[in-house]
């Protein structure tokens, strides 16, 4: 209210580069001379067009963070379940379950390819202590997504890492 410039708050419900792509869209609009309303509209449109999918290598960190119960974590670990998750409206949702890490990465690739279709898209492949797997996934996405404009590969920070654990 007291800022010397117009301030608008846009809750994207996203994290990491899913949020970053929204910020970039807003910044590009502002740099091009857009009004505050146009900047907000660009951010909201990009956020609405953005999806975030991920999987975790172990359920233990989700259990520790209160995202799943101890029984679910024990059962999932015993069966080597790798949950594929998505971020929707700021909440983590179970998308589906697969049995191995390699199947999880393959399925994640399929989901991204399906979602991207032939549209122009920017993608990010994040990881935690899984750089080789992230690079392999990024290479496959470069080959399979015809409308790829930009692809960012990076390790997540401590906050996301604490919730997801190594192998994200």
List the helices and strands and how they pair.
Elements: H1 16-31, H2 36-48, E1 52-55, H3 60-64, H4 70-78, E2 82-88, E3 91-98, H5 101-116, E4 121-127, H6 131-144, E5 148-155, H7 158-164
Parallel strand pairs: 4-5
Antiparallel strand pairs: 1-2, 2-3
Helix pairs in contact: 1-2, 5-6
If you had to describe this structure to a student in words, what would you say it looks like?
The radius of gyration is 18 Å and the shape is globular. Strands 1-2-3 form a three-stranded antiparallel β-sheet, covered by helices on one side. It has 168 residues and is of the alpha+beta class. The chain is built from seven helices and five strands.
Structural class: alpha+beta
> Per the principal axes of the C-alpha atoms, what is the gross shape?
globular
The total count of helices amounts to: 7
Tell me the total number of β-strands. Answer: 5
Major sheet description: 3 strands, antiparallel
Care to give the gist of this entry?
With 168 residues, the chain is of the alpha+beta class. Helices cover 48% and strands 20% of the residues.
Keywords:
5 strands, about 20% strand, two-stranded parallel sheet, 7 helices, about 170 residues, about 50% helix
């Amino acid at each position: 209210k007291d800022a010397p410039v117009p301030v608008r708050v846009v809750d994207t419900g996203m994290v990491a580069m899913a949020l970053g792509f929204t910020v970039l869209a807003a910044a590009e609009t502002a740099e091009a001379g857009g009004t505050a309303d146009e900047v907000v509209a660009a951010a909201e449109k990009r956020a609405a067009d953005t999806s975030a999918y991920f999987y975790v290598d172990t359920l233990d960190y989700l259990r520790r963070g209160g995202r799943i119960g101890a029984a679910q974590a024990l059962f999932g670990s015993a069966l080597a379940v790798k949950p594929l998750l998505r971020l929707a409206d700021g909440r983590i949702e179970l998308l589906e379950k697969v049995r191995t890490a390699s199947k999880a990465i393959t399925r994640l690739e399929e989901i991204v390819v399906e979602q991207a279709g032939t549209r122009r898209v920017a993608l990010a492949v994040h990881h935690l202590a899984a750089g080789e797997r992230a690079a392999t996934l990024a290479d496959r996405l470069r080959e399979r997504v015809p409308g790829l404009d930009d692809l960012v590969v990076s390790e997540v920070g401590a906050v996301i890492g604490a919730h997801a654990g190594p192998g994200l």
